[in-house]
Design brief:
The complex is a heterodimer of chains A (about 250) and B (about 220). Chain A is α+β, with helices and mostly antiparallel strands and about 250 residues long. Chain A folds into two domains: about 110 residues, Roll (Ubiquitin-like (UB roll)), CATH 3.10.20.30; about 120 residues, Alpha-helical ferredoxin (Fumarate Reductase Iron-sulfur Protein, Chain B, domain 2). Chain A has a five-stranded mixed beta sheet. In chain A, a hairpin with a 2-residue loop joins strand 3 and strand 4. Chain A is elongated and about 65 Å long. Chain B has about 220 residues and is mainly α. The longest helix of chain B is centred in the last third of the chain and has 32 residues. Chain B contains eight helices and no strands. Chain B has a single domain, classed as Up-down Bundle (3 helical TM bundles of succinate and fumarate reductases), CATH 1.20.1300. Helices cover about 75% and strands about 0% of the residues of chain B. Classes of the chains: A alpha+beta (about 250), B mainly alpha (about 220). At the A-B interface, helix 7, helix 8 and helix 9 of A face helix 1, helix 3 and helix 7 of B.
Chain lengths: ~250, ~220
Amino acid sequence: MRLRLKIWRQESNEITGRMESYELKEVNEEMSFLEMLDVLNEQLMQQGIRPVEFDHDCREGICGQCGVMINGEPHGPLQNTTTCQLHMRTFRDGEEIYIEPFRALAFPVKCDLKIDRSAFDRIIQSGGFISVDTGQAPEANSTRIPVPVAESAFDSAACIGCGACVAACKNTSAALFTSAKITHLAKLPQGKTEAQERVLHMVAQMDAEGFGHCTNTEACEAACPQEISVLNIARMNWEFNKAHIMRK
Amino acid sequence: MTQSTLTRKIWMALTGLFLCFFLIIHLLGNLQLLIPGPASKEQFNAYSQLLSGNIIIKIIAYILYASIIAHVVYAIIITVMNTRTRNVKYHYDKRGNLSKWYTRNMGVLGTIIFIFLVIHFRDFWYVYKFGELPLDEHGHKDLYTLVITVYSELWYVVIYVICMIALCYHLIHGFFSAARTLGLYHPKYVRWIRILGWVYSVGICAGFAFIPVYVHFLK
């Protein structure tokens, strides 16, 4: 299949970027989206043009590195899929495809489609952990967690931190990402002890990074490759309100 | 004092829910306009007089004014801050597929409602409180005749109905979003609140829109 690509090119954060057009004449529809970009880059290198930089790692949908905006939607038109798991059979022969980085002031563009997502790392560092005593491993059954609770906590923990929620949100809110971690730990007995400080610190860090307000449009859940539920946001709000009322 | 994004949303939710509560009382009062015959005039004017003299109603009125102002001010702050979170727009943006249009346009709907409120306050509230209204045969200010006169204008009824449609969509998202912001996360009750929000919003707005239409065509 033939494709016309419009790709955001930006050499570094200091230089303003622009959209550039490229044409690919032979694309196999069994290729993944990233393989298609690999083919493009080979073609560009042969022409002496700087290849398009993009993030990727596992290429099996679990690392959360590869998110880009494809035809105006995070990770492309296929629901609940990462960019690497998107295949060219989703597109038509001769289609024009727009590829842009996730846009947010909190996610500065490093180069082309590569963005700096360390704002997410700092949110996790501010409270997305539990404190445990060092020494010998405790007896495995000393903290018993019913299976439904473990499963539900795991649903929240499934977030891969790709940033699609932020990209999809009209307010650039990181509420889904932040709330997934808060909820994951709030559901488990190990997370209860630090629940109050966790939610206050993580929300404060989320705000400090310059993300917007959540207005519950639920676009984040629709764009999320891991189908993280917006009810995590409601749980974060609950934990936040509780922490505010109870704190001394 | 610096507030967090969540605290600002809580204020939006609390003021919004108070306004939701007020709308119920307001609609119940207005339904007296539907009473057939001269009893309607007598009862509506007496009710208006009762409200204007009651100390509890006065306190609620001040909370109401404060809620409207706070709701608008916070909406502006939140909107301005949200627009500052992204400096480059997407060249190709299909994110509209991911959410419902009215959830993304609460500000536009809110502006329509605000303009409506200004007209509404000028036509009724201001005239009743500060204007020269003639008295009816029972010595009450004759708000009833003013309302009937205003509703006899077709263009006013049309604008009124359009604004009620905007209000309806604003309420559908606002009511449910407020519950979320306050932390309702249990899936079962989230479902119930969504249904309750729909019933409430459509009920309130259909009720408000029906009154001028009924008065215009049948009174």
